[in-house]
Amino acid sequence: MSAVAPLAFVYDRCASRGMRARSQLEMRITGCHAYVDGMGWALAGGTWIDRGADALSSSRPCLSALVDAMRAEAGRREVLCLVHNWGRLATDTTHRLVFQRRIVEAGGWTVTTFGETDRRSRVALTIGCAGGAR
């Protein structure tokens, strides 16, 4: 693509309602924003956070909204979903790969604040991802 900075969409999930969980969520989001700044990426408006039962479901309404927003921008610039770590998508590998596949199909890629990425394996994610559910 062009020299335009990639557009980062920040995602997280939080099933717990306690003060500690909220504090940890805030720290992860702050870390994601700092990572975006450090990489020189542009930050997409808003942060997508699935909460409560949605954070544990396979439908993930906020992640679906993020994917839709990402798809709308993908034709104009490089887009990515930034999470603190892979567990923020899902602790179960099969579910995580399904979510990553949705991001790839929207034209993006996923990266963690630890520098892990599926950017180079995007083709593999679209070819044989377990499940096939969306």
Topology (SSEs and partners):
Layout: E1 7-14, H1 19-39, E2 42-43, E3 48-51, H2 61-74, E4 79-83, H3 93-105, E5 108-112, H4 122-128
Structure characterization notes:
The chain is an alpha/beta fold and 134 residues long. Helices cover 41% and strands 18% of the residues. The chain contains four helices and five strands. The protein has helices spanning 19-39, 61-74, 93-105, 122-128; strands at residues 7-14, 42-43, 48-51, 79-83, 108-112. Strands 1, 2, 3, 4 and 5 form a five-stranded parallel beta sheet that branches. Strand 4, helix 3 and strand 5 (108-112) form a beta-alpha-beta unit. Helix 2 (61-74) packs parallel to helix 3 (93-105) and helix 3 (93-105) crosses helix 4. The two termini are 27 Å apart.
Give a concise summary:
Helix 2 packs parallel to helix 3 and helix 3 crosses helix 4. The C terminus is likely disordered.
Shape: globular
Derived structural class: alpha/beta
State the order of secondary-structure elements, H for helix, E for strand. Answer: EHEEHEHEH
Number of strands: 5
Number of helices: 4
Which percent band covers the strand fraction? 15-25%
Radius of gyration from the CA trace?
14 Å
Q: State the major sheet.
A: 5 strands, parallel
Relative helix content: 40-55%
Provide mean pLDDT, rounded. Answer: 91
Low-confidence stretches: 129-134
What's the N-to-C terminus distance? 27 Å
